[in-house]
Design brief:
With 648 residues, the chain is of the alpha+beta class. The protein contains 23 helices and 25 strands. Bound molecules: adenosine-5'-triphosphate. GO terms for molecular function: ATP binding; ATP hydrolysis activity; ATP-dependent protein folding chaperone; unfolded protein binding.
Length: 648
């Protein structure tokens, strides 16, 4: 058959924009291109090793698994070649020529923001590691032959300026070579010494030999097989970056070597920051699965439950057969045991942070809290542990009164050091939040329920009139500002035999505020006024009652016994869930001047302005809840009220 001629292809629009930036920018850390290319070669070798050990036929079966780098200082050239899986024609057009991550546009925006000087480390993060070579090269040539013996060999060439060319070649060995001439300003990467030094720094632990101009450079092999004490922090950080493409150090890690009932080794890392696009479920992380050093699968979902899939790393177990299909791993009892141990160890690490490293916990909780908390609704065997790890803003922790109360109550000797630290201005990273345990420990004996209020954002929550009574009485209320809280907390039901109760509910177990009884509307006058409010609010409210909780506001809306929290209802609506609006209970404050004045007006027979203002008060409460549909009418009525009030 005649050889196919050269074909030219265009990069997709996003890729073009991205390449344009990569090609035309200046970099800090351009050397990361080497880590990216070695990482691709190592992945490719993993894939072919898996094929071989599972008995699949491969091209050139006798080839040693190797990564060979050849540099020439005089010619200023760099080439990296591996004996890995290689690429088919489709791989070259679909994978190499396409942006994998849908966060790319965000990446491009970030790059543009940074003007001319970019951090080369950022490129790999977006699943386009190969293209980082354009930081140092003007034109790249890839020659490749896939391990499947029926595939042909291909040559791919591009200068990153919008198009690439592919033609068939004569290569017989399976694997891939990537080669280029270095830009003048990056000719240092043609020096074998410089390359060796970089490999020792970034890729020493790669489990395949790396040869530089024929000399083997890396020495260590799989890091997770080493004794914990023989692995340095630096190596762990580099390993993490190698497998995760993150450019920051990890927040923390676990190095596990389990023996006995179940045997496996694992290196599990928690990133400091989520990757772009992370929170769309299909982009969650997971661990790589190895079987006795042989890579089996990337992102093995069955190793971690969804709520822990912020973790990255590897698990290597001899107890799993190599050629297990996805279905088998899913139902395998070995897998389930590994997963149980991993979950328990990860939770143990988070518990340790809470106790001893609150800064780490805070970083983690701010970044991955929403995902993590969802575990309460899915992992029932660890539910109690997860509930202990929950932390919330609260009326007391936010304004610091909880600390004061604890100090007044007399502190233990051990706590003095901590106080001294705080007084130096170094507040604990978690001091504006509270766990359910601390909440219940500091609540007075007379308090029977744990109170919370949920809402869209903390600032609005803090101003909610429903908090007035609790503030005045010094009762702590948890403020649930994270949307996930609204789905998690009501399901907890009780903690330490104390029911968790939204203060939006009309049936709270609170006493009337008798401390500073002002004049208040009562008896028939109150009955009459309530009737007017009922007429005005109509069917929209379930009931109108005299409030026991309001201090400074004349009215508020609460939720009936069976009703849903207004915040949850709003979110359900946003998610297009069909829920009819639950009817509210309108509470009026009989001792508030406005209510007293209205009652007086009503008693003197002027019921018309009373109706107008009652309606206005009701709509004002709806406005506060974000439930007012017709602001136009509201403002018109407000003008009428102002007209009345401003009459001489
Ligand atoms: N040496 C190689 N051998 C075989 N396939 C390769 C090689 N280098 C790149 N590829 C293919 O090209 C694809 C794109 O590589 P690129 O480095 O841009 O991103 P990636 O490796 O998929 O993502 P990440 O950088 O996040 O690991 C890879 O997924 C792989 O299919």
């Amino acid at each position: 058959m005649a050889k196919k001629t050269k074909q030219q292809f265009e990069f997709k629009a996003e890729m073009k924009q991205l390449l344009n930036l990569i090609v035309n920018s200046l970099y800090t850390n351009p050397e990361v291109f080497l880590r990216e290319l070695i990482s691709n070669s190592s992945d490719a070798l993993n894939k072919v090793r898996f094929k071989q050990v599972t008995g699949e036929k491969v091209q050139s079966p006798k080839l040693a698994a190797q990564i060979r780098i050849n540099v020439d200082e005089e010619k200023q050239t760099f080439a990296i070649e591996d004996t890995g899986i290689g690429m088919t024609f489709e791989d070259l057009t679909e994978r190499l020529g396409t942006v994998a991550s849908s966060g790319t546009m965000e990446f491009i925006r970030q790059l543009k923001d940074q003007k001319n000087k970019l951090d080369g480390n950022m490129i790999g993060q977006f699943g386009v590691g190969f293209y980082s070579a354009f930081m140092v090269a003007e034109e790249i040539t890839v020659e490749t032959r896939h391990a499947n013996p029926d595939e042909k060999a291909w040559k791919w060439v591009s200068d990153g300026q919008g198009t690439y060319e592919i033609e068939e070649t004569d290569r017989t060995e399976r694997g891939t070579s990537v080669s280029f001439r270095l830009k003048d300003e990056h000719k240092e990467f043609a020096s074998p010494e410089r390359i060796k030094q970089l490999i020792r720094k970034y890729s020493n632990f790669v489990d395949y030999s790396i040869l530089v101009n024929g000399e083997e450079v890396n020495s260590q092999g799989a890091l997770w097989h080493k004794n914990k004490n023989d692995v340095t922090e630096e190596e762990l950080k580099e390993f993490y970056k190698f497998i995760s493409n993150d450019f920051e150090d990890p927040l923390d890690h676990l190095h596990l070597a389990m023996e006995g009932r179940i045997n496996f080794k694992a290196l599990v890392f928690v990133p400091k920051k989520a990757k772009p696009d992370f929170f769309r479920t299909e982009n969650l992380n997971s661990l790589q699965l190895y079987s006795n050093r042989v890579f089996v699968r990337e992102n093995c979902e069955d190793l971690l439950p969804e709520y822990l899939r912020f973790a990255e790393g590897i698990v290597d177990s001899e107890d799993l057969p190599l050629n297990v299909s996805r279905e088998v791993t899913q139902s395998s009892p070995v897998m389930a045991k590994i997963r149980d141990v991993l979950v328990s160890k990860i939770l143990g690490m988070i518990e340790y942070w809470v106790e001893s490293e609150p800064e780490k916990f805070r970083t983690f909780y701010d970044e991955f809290g929403p995902l993590f908390k969802s575990g309460i609704n899915s992992d029932f065997s660890n539910r109690d542990r997860l509930i202990e790890l929950l932390h919330f803003y609260s009326t007391k922790s936010l304004d610091g009164t909880a600390d004061d109360a604890a100090k007044k109550g007399g502190k233990k000797q051990d706590d003095k050091k901590e106080d001294a630290k705080n007084e130096d201005g170094e507040k604990s990273a978690m001091s504006d939040m509270v766990s359910l345990k601390s909440y219940t420990e500091r609540m007075p004996d007379s308090q029977k329920e744990i109170y919370y209020l949920s809402g869209d954002n903390l600032d609005e929550l803090k101003r909610d009139p429903k908090l007035e009574y609790f503030r005045k009485k010094g009762i702590e209320v948890l403020l649930l500002a994270d949307p996930v809280d609204a789905f998690v907390v009501p399901g907890i039901g009780t903690y330490n035999e104390k029911p968790l109760k939204s203060i939006e509910k009309a049936d709270l177990d609170i006493e009337e505020d008798e401390t500073d009884q002002k004049e208040k509307v009562s008896g028939d006058a109150l009955e009459q006024l309530i009737r007017i409010f009922k007429d005005e609010a109509g069917d929209q409210v379930e009931d109108v009652v005299a409030s026991r909780r309001l201090v400074e506001s004349p009215v508020t809306l609460t939720v009936g016994k069976e009703g849903m929290d207004s915040h949850v209802e709003k979110m359900m609506k946003m998610m297009d869930q069909q829920t009819g609006p639950s009817r509210r209970v309108l509470e009026i404050n009989p001792s508030h001047p406005v209510i007293r004045n209205l009652s007086n007006l009503n008693q003197s027979g002027k019921s018309e302005p009373v109706r107008l203002m009652a309606r206005q008060l009701y709509d004002g409460a709806r406005l506060m809840q974000g439930e007012l549909e017709s602001p136009g009418e509201f403002v018109k009525r407000m003008n009428s009220v102002l007209e009345l009030a401003s009459k001489q």
